[in-house]
Amino acid sequence: MVRSTAAGDEKILSYEDVVLRRSDLDILSGPEFLNDRIIEFYFSYLTSSSPSGTILFLSPAITFWVANCQDAQAISDVLEPLNLPSYNIIVFPVNNNEDVGRAEGGSHWSLLAYHKKGHAFLHHDSSSGMNRAHALRLFKCVSLFLDASGSLTYMEVADTPQQVNGYDCGLYVLAIAKVISDWNEKNKEADWNWVSEIKKQVTPANVAALRGEVLELIRSMMGNK
């Protein structure tokens, strides 16, 4: 997604390819909708915390661009170097922004996850399928890069924990991504379905606590610079 920077919104941390700013701390300090920078930061953190290297977390910017690009060759030019078929799991953040020219647009985040062993994409939406059309559009854009036969399955996960307010959707995406990442590291030979772990671990209390945990993670990294 396109990003805008307000005057005086200074950089506070560079982590991998992500630059966080003072306004990102403000978002995490209060009950606000997460922006793409925070999600990209946490996905980068999960990547560095996943030693197997078998899971890929795509950034919101790449996911949004792929889902909205009308040029098949341009999409191929972006996705081919990522070597998507080499991963067991690929996690895509989904945003409902319809305006490709609007910075930080959209009002809802959800998560689409591909699992090679399950031969399927699972869409986890914390607001009753609000992003279904957007997730399906993304699925259609990327599925053929993973299986040229077109036989991959798309599933809406009805048991996805539901948010209890209008602003924590991004935190649900982070919490679900963390569960999938941990599940991947511990269950490489087990049943491919991680839904039961998400139902157990992604609770309103745990999601609310995650906001503070991410904030403290960023502050600790700032202190180590």
From TrEMBL:
One of its GO terms (molecular function) is cysteine-type peptidase activity. GO terms for biological process: protein deneddylation; proteolysis. PROSITE patterns: ULP_PROTEASE (PS50600). Pfam families: Peptidase_C48. Residues 18-180 form the Ubiquitin-like protease family profile domain. This is Ubiquitin-like protease family profile domain-containing protein. InterPro entries: Nep1/2-like, Papain-like_cys_pep_sf, Peptidase_C48_C. Keywords: Hydrolase, Protease, Thiol protease. Belongs to the peptidase C48 family.
